[in-house]
Request: fold
Amino acid sequence: MSEIATKIEARFIELGIKVQPDEIETRLDQLINKFKVPPEEARRNVINYFLKVHNIPRTEFFEKRETPQVKASEIKEDGKWVTLRARVVQLWETNHESVSQVGLLGDESGTIKFTKWTKAALPQVEEGKSYLFKNITTSEWQGQFSVKLNKTSEIVPIEDDINIETPRVATSDIKEEGKWITLRAKVVQLWETNHESMSQVGLLGDESGTIKFTKWVKSELPQVEEGKSYLFKNITTSEYQGQFSVKLNKTSEIVPINEDIEVGRSLVEYSGAIVDIQSGSGLIKRCPECNRALVKGACGEHGKVDGIYDLRVKAVMDDGEKVQDILLNREVTEALVGITLEQAKDMATEALDQAVVLDVIKSKLVGRYFIVSGAKLDRFILVDTIRQDTTPIEEGIMSLLATAAPVAQEA
Amino acid sequence: MAENGSGTGSGSGTGFAREVAHRIFAAEFKDSNLQAKEGQDQYSPSYLITPTGAKCNRVFIVGTLTEKDDVGTAAEFWRGRIVDPTGAFFVTAGQYQPEAAQVLAKTTPPEFIAVIGKPTTYTTKEGNVLTSIRAESMQIVDAATRDRWVVDCAKLTMARLEKLKGDNPDAVKAREHYSTDVESYRQMVQQALESVRAL
Reply:
């Protein structure tokens, strides 16, 4: 009985009200011992009495103590009342006046979207700060969970910085859109960005494979370097036409790591004839700032710049049934065509025309059979190795003759 | 969300599938006269359906350039005769195919040559349909490439003959129009293969 009394006292203290313990005990004693009321009923009665005396709404007293504290990753049910100790990872633009703030909360276990209703009349939260979100509700839409802050909720700022660890995954495990993750990867390639909102775009790789990444200008993150390895914290996954990629946003973090990650590749092989060499192949110039190929000496982003020479081939292969775009970088092009970048520059200078290099490339590639292997990306194969197809044709001839001949004899 | 889909640059563009380059032997190409158009407007691609049911908007052939002539009056217009084990192709390259025309201009027959181009047809006053290839690109190649093409073309022709029995729409059209004599094309393939067999 005294245990019940202590609990009641403690709870009222939490609400800022000092209730005399002996007064609680007297009331409990009267109900339980004198009037044979079950203890639970007695507790309820006593609480109600004091709530009335001090003019506190019932809901505040009960619901507060009933919301269990959970981790973000544990939220897997709709319509639960919970308490979350979390950091505001990101605030998004609200798209409706009924929403006062919307964004992402995170704790050690993961992240979850939150919505704070205007009607809740709660204080504003700040990005990067940690809070105890008391008495909030969980909600689900299309399999994605979120939490809602309502007018009975409470936001208590907390001092300690919650360490948000988005789960670290391997590139080959990225199979879902809209996940927050951490990736330990090497920058395999940087490409030309094709939109001014992108600061860098390219390919990341780890032991399990490769994945495209996009770093937004708005993210204000440092530039990454080709061939260097980093820990990419708090990035999101995204999907387009069945291809996955990761996006770096302003809450992401790039930590250089002192280790050379060996990039495992899901290599594809393709054999067929090269039927076209596309424009933008051969000796090209790239923007020194963003690596984009220049068009008539100008970069789409930085205008007229003093470009850096590069050698590459964008070609189309065809096996008679389907077409395959391939990309050859400088090293592969040099080895295949037998012209180094320096030689290519000399050729162009001598002829006063960059196109001479392209002509040589075309004469060595178009109409011939090749076997390429490399990482498949969008519609391209980023070629690691390319060799002329010299597999003996005799075997093919014999097996084809075998299928062609028997019927011929029947006729 | 403005997604581009392609990691780099332009090329053939998204949402537009490049036409496959079909491998057709000269004998079959010569027999072709069924044209088809996909869609009604003037920009829809046109196709040449061959007797074995290849629906071509682009072809890839390799053979021996045996003759070439500049038949143009004002501007250069080159015509070449390219021979494979089954017969001859006519290939053209004019002012709108400057690169191919240049290659044809500077090449002295005989020479092994690879051509990627568009099939075109011309109907004579007598009502005969003549086929030719308007070259998109053309390059001198080696004998090994030419032999490899014969095997490649044989393999794909055999595959089409196999499909010709089925209800693939192109196969049905080819069958109805040509009443394709499967056996004679099988022999054509056999003859082509025999010709490249190690002597």
In short: Residues 1-15 of chain B have pLDDT under 50 and may be disordered.
